[in-house]
Amino acid sequence: MRLLLTTDTHVPKRARELPAALLVGIDAADVVVHAGDWVDEATLDLLEARARRLVAVYGNNDGAGLRARLPEVARVRLGGVRFAVVHETGPARGREERCAALYEDADVLVFGHSHIPWDSVAANGLRLLNPGSPTDRRREPYRTYMTAEADGGKLSGVTLHRLEP
């Protein structure tokens, strides 16, 4: 199962539209995971129409309309892998321990908020992934998103994709 992970799209505040390379990736994915901060409902509508399957949550910059349509935390099994998706996880310091306790029923936690790509593993085996932002790099050198494969209860091929400026 091919996965595309994204978050912090911030359309139209940080970009007028999603990057073409991200849209190509969405078309190729079996499941798109979005960890919040959409900002506008039109981007959610676009991904709902374009993605084969969408797993998504709202973020701190998402208003009442998005919050009415999306949960704060999503839990789903994809390719036998147990995923949790949330926008915010708090400070980087202590993140693995904190999230291992909060999401002990998950194999993988996809999160956003910082716009900083993150890939780590907690002591209990929880894999934490933040795909960064495809539209707002902040202090990072590139705008980014991730792809991965989930099959037979295993996550593999996690790849951070850098988008051209």
Topology, please?
Blueprint: E1 2-6, H1 20-28, E2 31-34, H2 41-50, E3 54-56, H3 64-69, E4 73-78, E5 81-86, H4 95-102, E6 108-110, E7 118-121, E8 127-130, E9 143-151, E10 154-163
Parallel strand pairs: 1-2, 2-3, 5-6, 6-8
Antiparallel strand pairs: 1-9, 4-5, 7-8, 9-10
Description of the structure:
This protein is an alpha/beta fold and 165 residues long. It is 20% helix and 33% strand. It has 4 helices and 10 strands, in the order βαβαβαββαβββββ. The strands form 2 sheets. The protein has a 5-stranded mixed beta sheet, with helices on one face. A 5-stranded mixed beta sheet has the order 4-5-6-8-7, with no helix packed on it. The longest helix is centred in the first third of the chain and has 10 residues. It is globular. It starts with a strand and ends with a strand.
Largest sheet, strands/sense/barrel: 5 strands, mixed
Q: Assign an overall shape.
A: globular
Structural class label: alpha/beta
Helix share, percent? 10-25%
Termini separation (Å)? 29 Å
> What does the radius of gyration come to?
14 Å
The parts where pLDDT drops under 50 for at least 5 residues are: none
- In N-to-C order, the SSE pattern is EHEHEHEEHEEEEE
| SS element count, helices | 4
Number of strands: 10
How much of the sequence lies in strands comes to 25-35%
